[in-house]
Amino acid sequence: MTERLDVIGNEKKQQVDEPALVRKNIQRILNEWKTLKRVQLQSGKTEDYPEIAFLNKKIQEFEKDLRTLQTNP
After folding, report:
1. Ramachandran bin of 25, using left for φ above 0, alpha for ψ from -120 to 50, beta for the remaining angles
2. Ordered DSSP codes for 29-40
3. Residues contacting residue 37 through CB under 8 Å, at least 6 positions apart
4. Contacts of 23 by beta carbon, 8 Å cutoff, 6+ apart
């Protein structure tokens, strides 16, 4: 009986849609970067600050990655 449950568990693990999971994780991280940028700007920092420039760079990278994954599923 335990062997049968292990086989069923392994089949379910193999059915995970990895590209969808990766897209979801990238979207989640992208949203976090955007939230952090918004909070930094609300705290009085401007686009000239190194922290904001870093966040802009990361946001652009993740948006590019997300577009790439959406066009090449």
Report:
1. alpha
2. HHHHHHHHHHHH
3. 52, 55, 56, 59
4. 66, 69, 70
Q: Is 62 left (phi over 0), alpha (psi -120 to 50) or beta?
A: alpha
Identify the band that residue 20 occupies on the pLDDT scale cut at 50, 70 and 90.
confident
Question: Would you say 52 and 41 are in contact if contact means Cβ atoms under 8 Å apart?
Answer: yes
Backbone dihedral angles phi then psi of residue 36, each to the nearest 5 degrees: -60, -40
| Among candidate residues 27, 31, 28, 33, the one with its CA nearest the CA of residue 53 | 33
